[in-house]
Amino acid sequence: MRRIIESKSGVSNEVLIILIGSIHGNEKEGVKAIERTFKRLNSGSFEINGKVIGIAGNLKAIQEQKRFIDHDLNRCWTDEHIQKCLSNTGKLVNEDKELVELYHLINEVISEDYQQKYVIDLHTTSADNGNFLVYPGKVDDSTIAKQLGLPMITNLDDYLEGTTLLKYYSSDDVVSFAFEGGQIGSAKAIDIHAEGIWQLLQLSGIIPLTDQPKPLIDPSENLPSLLRVIYRHGVKINDGFKMNEGFESFQSVQKGEPLATDKNGSICAPVDGRIFMPLYQSAGDDGFFIVEEI
C-alpha cells in the first residue's frame, strides 16, 4: 500500500480536496472507496476544477489489519506531540512515524494555492447504522457537507481523549470533517463512501454536477440532521467492557436502560438520548456515546 493512493488535478486552482482513508488500519473501506473514485474519474472525460488527492493513513496497521500498532493514530494530533515526533525521528513508535509522514505530506498539499480547501477523513464503525459526519466547524446552509443529508455531530472532539486529525486541520482556511460510511467490513460502507465522495466532488465544484445524487441513508429513518454529544463512556484495557448486543447508532435509549457490562457489573444509560458508536470490537477506548438533537 502506497501513501498516496492517487492524485488528479486540472489547470484551475478553485478547489482542493484531500481524502484520507484507513487512519485506523482495520477500516479499509475508505481506501477502497477512494480507489473506486479515481477509477471513475479516470474512466470519463471530466474537467477537474482543482485537485483531488487520496491518501492512505496507517500503512503498517493496514498491512496487519489492526486498528493501530502502538497507539491510536487519530488521537495524537496536538502541536506538542507533533513537535516531539519531529524532533525525535530516530526514536519513534509506528504511529509516530506515520504521523510525521502524514504531517509533512498534508501540509505540503495544503500549502498549495487553492481557493477552497477540504480535508475529509473516511471512517467506519464497529456497529451498524454508522452513516454520519463529524463536523468540528460551524454548520449553516452553505456547508457542503450538510448537503449530503447525513446526521452531523458537532462536538465529538470535546469528548475524546486526544486530538483527531480533522480537529487539527480545521481552520478558517481549511474545512475538515470525518465521513463515517457504515460498518467495518461491509460492502455497503464502500458504496456509501464512494457515492458520498462523488457527491462532494460535485458539490464543491471540482467536477460538474451531471447526475441526480442518490440518498446516502433511508429517508424513512427520519434521523435528526444535527446532534451533539452529551455523554461518553470511556473504557480501559482491563475493564472487561462488553457492549450488550443489538444496539446501533442513533437508536433511542432511556435513562437507566442497561447498555453494557464490565468487571463491575451492568452499565446503564445515565441520561435519555440516542446511543452513538457503541463499541463492538476489542480495540478502542470509547465504549459508547449518547447524543441528542440540537
From TrEMBL:
Q: Which residues form the Succinylglutamate desuccinylase/Aspartoacylase catalytic domain?
A: 17-192
One Pfam family recorded for the sequence: AstE_AspA_cat
Q: Which cofactor does it need?
A: Zn(2+)
SUPFAM superfamilies named in the record: Zn-dependent exopeptidases (SSF53187)
Q: Which organism is it from?
A: Roseivirga misakiensis
Sorted alphabetically, the Gene Ontology cellular component annotations on this record are: cytosol
Name the UniProt record assigns to this protein: Succinylglutamate desuccinylase/Aspartoacylase catalytic domain-containing protein
Keywords of this entry? Hydrolase, Metal-binding, Zinc
Record carries keyword Nucleus: no
GO MF, one annotated term: metal ion binding
